[in-house]
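Example complex used in Figure S2.
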Amino acid sequence: MTEVVPPPARPNRGPTMARPAQATFGGIDTPTDRGRVGGPDFAAIHRGAEFTALRSRFRRFVFPVSALFFVWYLTYVLLAAYAKGFMSLRLFGSVNVGLVMGLAQFASTIGITAWYLRWARKNIDPQVAAIRAAAGVDAR
Amino acid sequence: MRTLAAADSQVGDPVLNTVVFAAFVVITLYIVYRVSGRNSSTSDYYAAGGRFTGVQNGIALSGDFLSAASFLGIAGAIAINGYDGFLYSIGFLVAWLVNLLLIAELVRNTGRFTMGDVLAYRMRQRPVRAAAATSTLVISFFYMLAQMAGAGAVVALLLNVQGKGGQALVIAVVGLIMIFYVLVGGMKGTTWVQIIKAAILILTVVLMTVFLIGKFGFSISALLDQAAANNAKGTAVLEPGAQYGKTQVSTLDFISLSLALILGAAGLPHVLMRFYTVPNAREARRSVVWAVGTMSVFYGATLIIGYGASALVGSERILGATGGSNAAAPLLAFEIGGTVLLGIVAAVAFATILAVVAGLTITASASFAHDVYANIFRKGNADAASEVRVARQTAVVIGVLAIIGGILANGQNVAFLVALAFAFAASANLSTLLYSLFWKRFNTTGTLWGMYGGLGSCLLLVFFSPVMSGAPTSIVSGVDFHLFPLANPGIVSIPVSFLCGYLGTILSKEPADAAKQKEMEVRSLTGIGR
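Predicted assembly (670 residues):
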């Protein structure tokens, strides 16, 4: 379903001056945490090269992988629905293609989970920690 | 034994079943009482202070997710319809990748207590929170109805309570225990109930599976052959289509169901709320990883248990028993382990229903107290004590409604009601969650269109579907006003909600709040400001 999600916003690498607020706030009742004084400067972090790199790296991984497993699942479902003959082909004993493909869905789910876990540990967590440290929030 | 069980649907010893279940209740109540503390702050009550580890929360997530429909429903579906039942298992499991990749960490970083926190973050608070609370309450109600309806069927089989009045009484008792868990334990106590329940459930199914595999000489093929031999549908149960392959419409219904299953899990409010009980995004990720691990084991085991029930009990005996296909797992337990194992499985089934309903109740009450009372009525100025008080009162009201609904829905198809709740979740929540996390232009109008469009189209399609009228299994009999052929609306309502969210955003003149959008993007990825 990620195909429906519009592409990520282009990183804002414009001049260092904060852009004037373009939104008219007339229609907004109460922002979630208004009154937080001296909080982190989100606009500055958002402009920073580290953050834009983190965001595009994250999206370049999760969007294609989401599309991948979704298409793979859909292929399987459509085969089960419309290619009964193929799914009923026996491979060994009474075990047929459908059963093996079903178990392959299990395997791919576990595989993608493990892949993402390793990938995020290596590519996301250190960058998040660096951005948090630069912003002065304790990384705990 | 075999003839006795076949002639009389009652199996096992109701007294033993009750004793095992009572032991579970007493032990969990004691633990809830010990761990709960005071639960006076909103953070304690809704999110257990964010102090659970990823492992604990992951097991609790599987506890929340593996409902009676998963255990009794899927085992029964595989036992009767074979391969088509297995497709449920796959959909329920693969769905967790959506949570893992797109939802869990970002939601945990952005919100605090409810789904409304995320959706309303950069939107106008009151209308969006009202919409989020509406969809949370509707989804929770449908899901809860399914669980309570399941309770009735299980009671009939396991405690030998045949009369509707007696079953209603048992449903009421189950509901009251659940309310007590939530009131005393808050999120912390409820989480521990989930953990204990998930551990017992998975241990039980693994032991049954190992036994079955051993019994058939470690040959899956032998198990399958025997399952086909003892099933009225024969070898058709080894292939897709035994249940859904009859007509073009039923095949389409199957695709619709599959979509709802895989896209619904990420929109279930009680699953989303679990991500707030951990201290940071890495633990949220670990939660999902552990949930995927335990659920792979569980859903893998349901395949063996389902076919095992067909092989050892036989489809005709299962369908002849009280509770119909839901009775497959208990009957199999009785077949391989006698009254003791049946007692344990009975207790596990009850515990499952109890725990899932408790999780739903705390979610629905949190949404009402936090989104509606604190942020809409009090405009964000409610003090913690009164917010928790409102949450507790809401939990009692919801619990009572669930009891009444459960008594009325007693006898309805459990798996269908759960699949419907998934369709609602996928339609109302997933599109708006994804848009608000990833689409810069998305605005308040888009959020409202997406949620109400998805929810509304879902309700409308269900109302005019064969579920309500025009089929032998319909809720309303005698009149036929069905216009939409599918039982599951997902294939239409999910795209509708994505389209509504898109059109609402494009067509409204209101620009998105750029500053809050940047803040949300930073916060969701890094956790800064949470």
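The mean pLDDT of chain A is 78. The beta strands of chain A are 90-92, 95-96.
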